[in-house]
Amino acid sequence: MRRGGGSVAAVLAMTALAGPASSFAQAAPPTGAQQSRDGSHDFDWEIGSWTTHLRYLPEPLRGSNRWLEYRGTTEVRPVLDGRANLVELSVEGEAGRIEGASLRLYNPETRQWTLNFASARSGVLSPPVTGAFDAKGQGIFYGVDTVGGRTVLVRFVISDVTPNSARFEQAFSDNGGVSWETNWIATDTRR
């Protein structure tokens, strides 16, 4: 597990075991350096147009190693005076097209972001992941979702951030955060 995620994953695991995914609604209170840090502009670097290369594992948590590849664009716009942003993803590959939108909202009380994703294919807003960027500029976000009828932990990591590129990685855990299976890797390059 990545550094800094152990205690959050444990809390999420207990929450997941205690009830359905919808019961996870509150983020953990900020701790340490996060308490004094205003992260309301942590996504300012991403505003603009990006070329996206996406690898997607269509059958997560089934032992599959079949990845699908997509290419396309991501557009990121600020909303609510920069305390939120709207991401529009449009990529194509041999398996078809993925279109989606993510609304990212900053909570000044907890000093954390929620990332809320909706796919055009399903028309459903998935449960959010919640977290923040650390002192090294890596964003780590956790949540709970349902995959194949099972409640799973979700970890979303934003890393390798530069003014012209970034990496986005999503992983699921069906064993309370003991192990993680990556199922979504996107690299963005500024257009």
Report on this model:
By secondary structure, the protein is mainly beta. The chain has a single domain (6-190), classed as Lipocalin. The protein is 9% helix and 51% strand. The chain has a ten-stranded antiparallel beta barrel. The protein starts with 5 loop residues before the first helix and ends with a strand. The model is unreliable at 1-27 (pLDDT under 50).
For this entry, give a set of tags.
191 residues, mainly beta, Lipocalin, 9% helix, globular
CATH class: Mainly Beta
Shape call? globular
Q: From N to C, what is the helix and strand string?
A: HHEEEEEEEEEE
What oligomeric assembly is this protein in?
Answer: single chain
- Judging by the overall fold, what is the CATH architecture? Beta Barrel
User: Which stretches are low in confidence, meaning pLDDT under 50 for 5 or more residues running?
Assistant: 1-27
Strand neighbour order, sheet with most strands: 1-2-3-4-5-6-7-8-9-10
Main sheet characteristics: 10 strands, antiparallel, barrel
Distance between the termini: 33 Å
